Amino acid sequence: MKAVVLAEIGASHVLKVEDDRLAPEPAANEVCVEIEYAGINFVDVYQRTGLYALELPAVAGREGAGVVRKVGDTAAQETDVKVGDKVAVFAQGAYAQYVCAEATHVLKLGRDISTKLGAAMMLQGLTAWTLVRDAHEVQRGEWVLVRAAAGGTGGLVSQMAKHLGAQVIGTASTPGKCSIAKANGCDFVINHEETNVEAEVLRLTDQLGCHAVFSGVGRATFGADLNCTRRKGTLVTYGNSSGPIEAFRPLQLSGKNLKLVRPTLANYIKDRGEFDLRSAELVNLVSTGAVKVNIGKVYGMDEVGKAQDELSQGLTTGKLLVRIS
């Protein structure tokens, strides 16, 4: 099969397309899927640069969608997914024509959800939904700050927090991205290149700060994110787009009795019941139009390195995809 392979840690040029990679066979608890679209995510960048450990060489990519081609014996008993079904998967190796995923991480797509949309909503959609439901359960009337509210995950977090009844403040870096953040449901949008985010958040919230701050930025905004969180509030730091947070002292939380959460999606959907619950809720949000998945750009398999560079340099908006077949 054709696949994008990561053989060594390094810059985006280390990603290579191989035409003769051995196609995987599903284990008993797995489903084999012919991938049509895969999603580009920051986790792919973190794996390539060595921030997240990965046994190399490996096929890159963590999410995709396509058509089921084989179902393992145990998987057939655990799920109603059958050969020929359209599904989205959360599994390592999605930048390939075929990937095998554990049955617990295979989402059957309804008739009204294409594989393109399925690939776009899987990882970032579940990440965003578990952030606002599990990392901090957003309540009606709360003030919420969302960093990078024009991006893939940030845009979904903004929409979902608004859907749950919060007053949403979003940040973005350009007038165009501010407009996108506004369309994503933000009540207030701050251009962080022109305005002091911390001062503006405190002004909007009568100097109290936000009940929750959702930030995938990491190092560059961590201090301000803490300051934007109100007494007994929650800072959810879920990414490292500016680099990992370093030299943090837990005592920093005591001034306002803050809660600091560093979640990963995998630990919120570890068992089948958790995955089924949150994925069904996500599908309902998308199917009813309560949440819109904005696809920003679609790349070819030979452009995965370019896609990762554009993502990490802040040059994109919405969800980025790779067309596999």
UniProtKB/TrEMBL annotation:
UniProt superkingdom: Eukaryota
Enoyl reductase (ER) domain boundaries: 10-322
Signal peptide feature range: none
One Pfam family recorded for the sequence: ADH_N
Record keyword Oxidoreductase present: yes
UniProt keywords, alphabetically: NADP, Oxidoreductase
GO cellular component: cytosol
PROSITE patterns attached to this UniProt entry: QOR_ZETA_CRYSTAL (PS01162)
GO MF annotation list: mRNA 3'-UTR AU-rich region binding; NADPH binding; quinone reductase (NADPH) activity; zinc ion binding
Protein name, per record: Probable quinone oxidoreductase
Organism of origin: Knufia peltigerae
Organism placement in taxonomy: Eukaryota, Fungi, Dikarya, Ascomycota, Pezizomycotina
